[in-house]
UniProtKB/TrEMBL annotation:
<dbReference type="InterPro" id="IPR011006">
    <property type="entry name" value="CheY-like_superfamily"/>
</dbReference>
<keyword id="KW-0597">Phosphoprotein</keyword>
<dbReference type="Pfam" id="PF00196">
    <property type="entry name" value="GerE"/>
</dbReference>
<keyword id="KW-0238">DNA-binding</keyword>
<dbReference type="GO" id="GO:0003677">
    <property type="term" value="F:DNA binding"/>
</dbReference>
<feature type="domain" description="HTH luxR-type">
    <location>
        <begin position="149"/>
        <end position="214"/>
    </location>
</feature>
<protein>
    <submittedName>
        <fullName>DNA-binding NarL/FixJ family response regulator</fullName>
    </submittedName>
</protein>
<feature type="domain" description="Response regulatory">
    <location>
        <begin position="4"/>
        <end position="120"/>
    </location>
</feature>
<feature type="modified residue" description="4-aspartylphosphate">
    <location>
        <position position="55"/>
    </location>
</feature>
<dbReference type="GO" id="GO:0000160">
    <property type="term" value="P:phosphorelay signal transduction system"/>
</dbReference>
<dbReference type="InterPro" id="IPR000792">
    <property type="entry name" value="Tscrpt_reg_LuxR_C"/>
</dbReference>
<dbReference type="InterPro" id="IPR039420">
    <property type="entry name" value="WalR-like"/>
</dbReference>
<dbReference type="InterPro" id="IPR001789">
    <property type="entry name" value="Sig_transdc_resp-reg_receiver"/>
</dbReference>
<dbReference type="GO" id="GO:0006355">
    <property type="term" value="P:regulation of DNA-templated transcription"/>
</dbReference>
<keyword id="KW-0805">Transcription regulation</keyword>
<keyword id="KW-0804">Transcription</keyword>
<dbReference type="InterPro" id="IPR016032">
    <property type="entry name" value="Sig_transdc_resp-reg_C-effctor"/>
</dbReference>
Length: 220
């Protein structure tokens, strides 16, 4: 199955470079390019790409606002933010808007291509260079009420609560299985249940829920 990609960046040279790399990558195809957020939203509606690779700082409608519009539309398209700026507020803003990944442009090209495939497959990914700092920052923030559009976590079991806290702490399914002395398949099942119960698009959104409900902070 070929992953259809829409590239969004206000710098034509960046788009051209990414387009060339993706064209040579197995299983990936560029179906369109946009120079700003408004055009990205329009083309997403017309082309229905699997993944939008989105810059943040652009004239007019920026990447965070465009991401919010795309994800709010409720389609199957997922957004990966790819930017030079790894400021914590940009990260949180992008993920809160519904992005399934946050990458920085100094990552290896193979890692960027791999991230696009991961997100297209339904998972989420944050660049390793910002993951640890992001987790630390939100674990130290005062607990906030859950976002009103999300179900409260009172409807999940104690074990699912444990798993959600570990997902929020950045652990993989394998690490969760080791921590809780369960199989990897069982850990994956718990994560799948959490995605359904909490109406989360992917693992990244579970991390946000864990922070917003104070679950990560309380577990430390």
């Amino acid at each position: 199955m070929t992953v259809r990609v829409l590239l969004v960046d206000d710098q034509p040279l960046v788009r051209a470079a990414l387009s060339m790399v993706i064209a040579e990558a197995e299983g990936l195809e560029v179906v369109g390019e946009a120079g700003d957020g408004a055009e990205a939203v329009r083309l997403t509606g017309e082309l229905a790409p699997d993944v939008v690779v989105m810059d943040i700082r652009m004239p007019g409608v920026d990447g965070i606002e465009a991401t919010g519009r795309i994800t709010a539309a409720g389609g199957a398209t997922r957004v990966v933010v790819l930017t030079t700026f790894d400021d914590d507020e940009y990260v949180y803003g992008a993920l809160r808007a519904g992005a399934s990944g946050f990458l920085v442009k100094d990552m290896a090209l193979d890692d960027i291509l791999g991230a696009v495939r991961v997100v297209a497959a339904g998972d989420g990914l944050i660049a390793p260079s910002v993951t640890g700092r992001l987790i630390k920052e939100f674990a130290e923030r005062p607990a906030a009420a859950p976002a009103p559009e999300r179900p409260r976590i009172g409807g999940i079991t104690d074990r699912e609560r444990e798993v959600l806290a570990l997902v929020g702490g950045g652990l993989s399914n394998t690490e969760i299985a080791e921590r809780l002395c369960i199989s990897v398949a069982t850990a994956k099942t718990y994560v799948t249940r959490l995605l359904a119960k909490l109406d989360a698009r992917d693992r990244v959104q579970l991390v946000i829920i864990a922070y917003e409900t104070g679950l990560v902070a309380r577990s430390r």
